[in-house]
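Weekend entry, working from home. Most of the wet-lab plans are on hold until the incubator is repaired, so I used the time to fold the two sequences that have been sitting in the queue since the last round of cloning. Logging both here for the record. First:
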Amino acid sequence: MSSIHYEQRDQPVGVPPLALTGERTLPDVPEENYWFRRHLVVYEWIAARVGGLRVLDMACGEGYGSDVLADAAAGVVGVDANPEAHEHARLRYRRSNLRFARDLVETFDEPADVVVFLQTIEHLSDPGAALDHFASLVGSADDRDVLTAGSIRPGSVVLSTPNVLTLAPAGESRSGNPWHVHEYRIEEFDRLCRSHFREVRMFGLFHARKLRAHELALRLGWDTLHPRLGLTRRFYGWFTPAISVSDFAICPIGQARIEAALDFLAVCRV
């Protein structure tokens, strides 16, 4: 991991900035903008589908995702055990339909319509126990309420995790992230979800627009060219902060090469 210390910039008065550790992503860190937008686009996708529902955002970290969900949900509880992250979220994000609880995701037991658990299952040594617990919080879905592609209904648990095939360096079996216990291939993640839920819809997150163009440029040798031209710092000093959620796309499995996805997104029903 890099020894450079990054910390959130321009926080509201009275809100302590969080340091970037690699365990969670943060807004307001320009160097982290790619990862922040990659997470944010999924939260926005979910928020568009949970209008009027009660949502638990498990392992909410800094709290930005819980705040996004609260744009549409009837109520949101952001749950995180880290004291610094909890205090930051509590002070920064204030809405009448949003609150934060400092607790372990395995023990927090408030019922809800939907549980959201993003980019965290890879951190768990016993993911099955966590999924069973989440299922107990959302209860049983109405059998007549069919989960159509792209919908989120009461009784749902929404999960995401990075794809080890695109996260790990070429030729390696996993990334170097020390916080990850297990990194998933699509077959493993799908099997895990289906072993705990009766219905699963799987999606993939992909690069689009600027990031797709950059991906193609890398294949053509951009990484060997920009250092020789002395453009590295200038180009990425502009490019990384300019990345937006529109530079990512979420596609259902079957409409894209899911094994090439950046992240997998599963909408599961009890």
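Second, folded right after the first finished:
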Amino acid sequence: MASKSTDANVTPPAVQTPLKPEETELLRKRDEQSALESELAERELRATNLRAELGAFERRFLHLVGLRYAELDEYKAQLAERLAAEQPGNERAQKAATEARAGAGETKNGAGEKSDAELHVFKASPEMKRAYREVAKRIHPDLTSDRNDRTTRQQLMARANEAYERGDEATLTKILSEYESSPEAFQGEGAGAELVRVIRRISQVRGRLSEIEAESQALLRSDLYQLRLRVEEAAQHGRDMLTEMMAKTDEQIAEAKRRLSEGAKTL
């Protein structure tokens, strides 16, 4: 008679331990983090590309036209100052000379040349020193042994050093605030601690997405971007707008030189 089979050698199915609420939430938040980080990478690329394109256009514009504008405004200032010197009692002429000189200085700076007023000696205020000390005490790279945290601190300290040199106290305060709420600043093990870090990272990413949007909109509204659009539109109609601007400015420079050489009495 055949023996009956038994379940003695059969391995019972594994019993899965139900996930804790914080573990379930952690999985959901990690998916959210992954999606946001992918979006951030794409937005960063588009914003960086826009800045690079505008930077290249600005350098080309300054090389072809900007320096000519600076030269023209310098001649205009000299003409205005000559007229003011010839008519010391003419308040209108004096004002025009002052405004022309200020305009020439602005154009010169915009073309890449610095005025004497910008060559100042750096001196930090007590408030700046206090803000920098707070940043250094809290986030200096040498204060941690964690490799990832150290990398983050090094990047933040580099930003802090630049902000200090610029005298930018607001950025120093922002850097400290960013680190205090960063994932790296939160210690602990387990799903609960990791959930806090993921939530903080999501908050960081959302904050950066908002910053990129504001930066991009500012660039799109800038005079430089609008000028670039006009140049591109002109090119579609077979015109080289920058070359036209160069030619017109050269004519104005020649006229200003002629008036200076002849001792012109009026602008």
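Plan for Monday: verify the second prediction. The CA atoms of residues 79 and 264 lie 7 Å apart.
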